Amino acid sequence: MTNSTSTPPGPRAGRREWTALGVLMLPLLLVSMDVSVLYFAVPAISADLEPTGTQQLWIFDIYGFVLAGLLMTMGSLGDRIGRRRLLLIGAAAFGAASLTAAYADSAETLILARAVLGIGGATLMPSTMALIRTMFTDAGQRARAIAVWSGVMTAGVALGSVLSGVLVEYFWWGSVFLVNLPAMVLLLVLGPILLPESRDPDPGRFDWPSVPLSMAAVLPVVYGLKEIPSEGWNVRYVLSVTVGLLFAALFVHRQRTTASPMISPALFRGRGFAPAVTLNLVSAFGMMGSAYFTTQYIQSVLGKSALEAALWALLPSVPIGAAAPLATRLVQKGVDRAHVITAGFAIAASGYGVLALAGPDSMWLVLVACGVLASGIVMVMSQIMDLALGTAPVERAGTASSLMETGTEFGGALGMAVLGSVGTAVYRHEMPSSAPDVARETLGGALTVADQVPGLATAAREAFTSGMNGAAVAGAVLLAGAAGLAAVTLRGVRAHSETPTSRVPSARPAFEDEAVQAEAGLRGRPPPDTRTSVDGNVRPGSPHARTSRRSPRRPPPGPPPGPSRPR
Predict the structure, then answer these.
(1) Element (H or E) spanning 523, and its range?
(2) Cα dihedral: 233, 237, 238, 243 (round 10)
(3) What is the pLDDT, as a whole number, of residue 495?
(4) CA-CA 20 to 30 A from 217: which of 165, 297, 446, 524?
């Protein structure tokens, strides 16, 4: 089954919208860069501010934790107060926090500034995607815009570490934060001019109790999953994940029972949305799970410096720039989106297959594997994001995008935890039993005592490579399973604007009607009449049924169906 290529409803975007897209990409690039911008700045920060070990961990991690914990809240808030307004508020907060972080004179100040950066990032990410959904109503144009969004998002993570290394090499560590200011100033100036305002016209009351519940669900799980790869299955981290899952169950229960939920359950009733969220999580699993090994491989196995490793890691980003546009082009040519997503997962799985063949001196093979893997994942993520936003009603675009991005955070943390654990288990099995305990724990520990034990460094590098091979096999199996899942669950699924052109241009998608009726039932009031269906027909029960195009203009011939009442 192929996607419809008929003219989709909605006006086509012009020069103004594409210029606005370029403005939107600035904060997205910076938010994604801030995930990795401290990779090379931490040593300089440690020498200047002298943080404790715990403070240093919080300087690095608090940005991602706050970002992940507030994505759902900010996505729902943007639907209520306006996505452009929230974007500009977040830009102002992000710029002010960047300036504070650049000139922080203590570890506590820097931690606080990084936390505010996380809050700003949580407002910026769902707002950018929701505004894209609002500005690009044409299916083909929206797909191209989301392909650009996916490429910029992926490139930002890769560029963050390189930019950090270059700036710290020639300037002081605060410069890694000051680069945010020009982009945020430009956004604050051009945003009100170029970006349209959009919001949910009937959002209901904001569900304040869901805010702490969502954070209590997300933060412990992300924290535990991020610590497990390096510290092992410690009881504390397993307990953290368990507590987070319990709060997640409470959060879901509240969304299903409250009259005005933060995350409307009606979103998941749209065909294709729930599979999109799941497959997006799996794709993030595959991407971050491989990054955990390849960055260590280039530095610790091949012996490259941190900056050299970051520069080499840019090479796999070259094919990524063509992956998302290629996937979009195939869908626009009529290829079923399910087939494109399935192919993307298959390509990513083959990248893991190549990684499984790497040896201790296989730099080019690892770089090729990373490029193939990342290209497949970007193909998947661009199409999954487009499908999710096209399936969700436009008034809930912020909520939908925040769910997808929260899934990305979960998937990345889960990928590092699961594949990291597989690799660690193989590493410990391959290490000689006579090796010191610290050497049997991690490759970094082995290299610190390598001078004391002849041949230990070589054995540790070979064991780490074997662990990477084992994790790659596990990743390939998972992504191959995701390919099968995508082929089954997404077959024939189209976004709203991919359906054939309806007879009535103003006809609303059927899912929007279902969502409205479902929420009306949750709020305890009768659902509004739905005037039109996807094919342009007036639905039964509508007060406008008498004016339907398909209603006969005169009574049909023949006697009436029942006896007439005498006057």
Answers:
(1) none
(2) -170
(3) 56
(4) 524
Give the distance from CA 95 to its chain's centroid: 23
For 417, left (φ over 0), alpha (ψ -120 to 50), or beta?
alpha
Render pLDDT for 489-526 as a digit per residue (tens, 0 to 9): 887 666 554 443 333 333 334 444 444 444 444 444 44
N residues, the chain: 567
pLDDT tens by residue, 26-76: 777 777 776 666 766 766 787 788 787 667 767 777 887 788 788 888 888
* Dist. CA 435–CA 454, nearest whole Å: 10
pLDDT value for 493: 65
Q: Which token pair is 410?
A: 């979960």
What gap in Å lies between CA 187 and CA 181, rounded to an integer? Answer: 10
What local confidence, expressed as pLDDT, does residue 537 receive?
40
- Please give the pLDDT value at position 348: 93
Section 542-550 average pLDDT: 41
58 CB-near residues (< 8 Å, 6+ apart): 111, 114
Question: Which position has the higher pLDDT, 369 or 389?
Answer: 369
Q: Is the pLDDT of residue 541 over 50?
A: no
The three-state secondary structure class of 261 is coil
How far is 257 from 259, CA to CA, in rounded Å? Answer: 7
Sign of CA dihedral 81, 85, 91, 96: negative
* Alpha carbon separation from 508 to 307, 490, 493, 531 (Å, rounded): 52, 22, 17, 9
Q: Are 164 and 36 in contact (CB under 8 A)?
A: yes
d(C-alpha 342, C-alpha 348), whole Å = 10
Contacts of 329 (CB under 8 A, 6+ apart): none
d(CA 338, CA 162): 35
Alpha carbon distance 126, 82 (integer Å):
12
Helix (H, G, I), strand (E, B) or coil at 53: helix
Burial profile 280-319: b = 16 or more Cβ within 10 angstroms, e = fewer: bbbbbbbbbbbbbbbbbbbbbbbebebbebbbbbeebbeb
Q: What are the residues facing 532 on neighbouring strands?
A: 538
Tokens coding 194 = 């170029």
For residues 345 and 360, give the distance between their C-alpha atoms in angstroms, rounded to a whole number. Answer: 27
pLDDT digits (tens, 9 = 90+) for 213-243: 888 888 888 778 777 766 667 788 888 888 9
Type of residue numbered 505? P
* CA–CA distances in Å: residue 112 to residues 104, 263, 381, 484: 10, 29, 32, 44
Side-chain-side CA neighbours of residue 472 (13 Å): 24
| SS3 call for 353 | helix
Lookup result for tokens 């815009």: 145
